[in-house]
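Reply to dn_fold:

You asked what the input looked like. This is it:
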Amino acid sequence: MRVLRSTDAAQPPVVIEEQVPQPRPQRGELLVRVHAAGVTPTELVWFTTTHDNDGGQRRRAILGHEFSGVVAALGEAAVGFEIGQEVYGMNDWFADGALAEYCVTQPTSLAHKPSRVSHVEAAAVPIGALTAWQGLFERANLQAGEHVLVHGGAGAVGSFAIQLARFRGARITATASARNVDFVTGLGADKVIDYRAVRFEDEVADVDVVFDPVGGDTLQRSWSVLRPGGRMVTVAADGESTTDERVKRAFFIVEPNQDQLIRIGDLLESGTLHPVVDSVLPLSRAPAAFTGEVGRRGRGKIVVTIASET
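and this is what came back:
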């Protein structure tokens, strides 16, 4: 089968297409024929891409961990799904990913694909929506009526954070570029700050929750806008290796969760939640998504099409 994988022959790593044997699901696993997969460009340098679960060096990882497709085979004792069912989800960060014609995953990492959305749209959902759900609802315990600041409001994670915060009944301020102000307002933000024109800390204060997928200077400046007892949540990659105790407490890595995927799927089916697809590429052009060569609007997720939709 065709796959996209990283190569450590160059520094920084690059993405190449290769032919590899089709995997077989082991006991308790299932095989998905991938129709579409989401791309997170920074994944190329993540710890989970360059290291295995024991901390050793990982080589030639197959990239992409969110997908939509069809169940192609079941391993022994795999339960909850049948061959031919349409599914969407994400697989383990240390497993081979879904920028491939087939991927192996656990049934607990999947849910049935909502019929309202296409495979391309569904592939744009799992990581962003689960990150927003776990960050806002589990980590920050966001409540109706609270004020949340969402950075990167037009992005793959921020766009879901705004929609889910609106679903919870929170008051939302978001940051975005000028060209995306109207778009982010349409997602449900009460106020949108053009972060290139003004400093957000001059425009907002005493917020209950800051949701940060950006990191760096944005994260450091965000502490000052929290009210006493306010909660910071960050998923920015630079939080993984931080020595700052505040950032350590605020940082988390999203995990697959079937129950949450089911609930997110219900919101997609009802039209309460909407996927945001920035651009769509065939597998042959997908390496460009990791190099910045693809023209982007800065809205939502780049999605790679792999198998024809049915």
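Residues 175 and 204 are 11 Å apart (CA to CA).
Hope that clears it up.
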